Amino acid sequence: MSRFQNKFDHHVWRVVASIPAGRVMGYGEVARVAGFPRYSRMVGAALGRSPEPLPWFRVVRSNRTLAFEVGSSAYREQAQLLKQEGVRFDGLKIIEVETDDSLDRILWGPQE
DNA sequence: TAATTGACCGATC
DNA sequence: AGATCGGCCAATT
Known about the structure:
The protein is mainly α.
């Protein structure tokens, strides 16, 4: 296990652990926030290596689809876990969930 | 060494 | 809106 992995993994894990329930982040987004821009492809691998349970299912593609093969058991599991916390789907794509705190609207105004 | 492989991304057509 | 393509970069083969 390379030293790079160890450092990278821990940063990624921390970011993923910080994703609130009902919200999702992209692989590239996680990598960027973790301080490793352009390392999107590494994020999935890091998740698979986590010794602690992580909300791995809150990490999705930048186009808001799931990264697993459609219909696979992993895909169904992730979709189920997300739906369980209120994330809605339009077919394969995730519908961005409203943060039920009206704070966002107060601060930013109605979107779209 | 060199080639292939990913739980990917963004621009472009 | 969907498909293609080039770029990405450590790990694995």
